[in-house]
Amino acid sequence: MEEERPKIKLIPTTADKLMELLGWLILLALWTLTICHYSTLPETIPTHYNAAGEADDFGGKTSIIRLPIIATLLFIGITVLNRYPHIFNYPTAITQDNALRLYTLATRMLRYLKLVLVLVFGGIEFMTIQHATGKAAGLGGWFLPLTAGLIFIPLIYFVIKSVQGKNQE
Predict the structure, then answer these.
(1) Which residue, 44, 82, 148, 169, has most beta carbons within 10 Å?
(2) Secondary structure class of 96 (helix, strand, coil)
(3) Coil, strand or helix at 111
(4) What is the largest CA-CA distance in the chain?
């Protein structure tokens, strides 16, 4: 039987609060961008891009609403999940001694990922609007590598930080 993990009330730092606020502001900007440009979109817009950043599927302009909806659901879902760091999976056993450090790292990582998530969705939305209105030809070949870097480099960093502390405990 698995031991009950400590439940700790984390106090967010100023940087944590700023990252959270920035995420909400970018999410609001994503919705504003979508609503402000909706009426100027043609009836058919790109709905999917290949790995090279080229549009490879098209649909009706109402599909432009999907990205902000998905981004909002993911953002809110991760926000709620972030309140329960004791249920996350960790690369090391959680003890009373390391719980605060590991929970803080994990919640900070999720805050960062939420921020990246809304930035990526916002970038896709912006470039879709640009493509649909003839101002761009797609996402560009740089988009996928940049997105992968923004997600995986910090994930690797946080996992390493979590495991490094294991040697000190």
Answers:
(1) 82
(2) coil
(3) helix
(4) 60
Domain boundaries, the chain: 14-29+62-168
Helix or strand (DSSP H, E) at 35: helix 14-38
Closest CA to 118 of 16, 24, 34: 24
C-alpha 156, offset from chain centre:
15
Strands (E) in the chain, as ranges, are 44-49, 55-60
| pLDDT tens column, 66-103 | 999 999 999 999 999 999 999 999 988 999 999 999 99
Q: Residue 17, Cβ neighbours under 10 Å: how many?
A: 11
**Residue 76 region by backbone torsions, left for phi larger than 0, else alpha for psi between -120 and 50, else beta:** alpha
| Sequence-separated (6 or more) residues with CB below 8 Å from residue 10 | 85, 100, 103, 104, 107
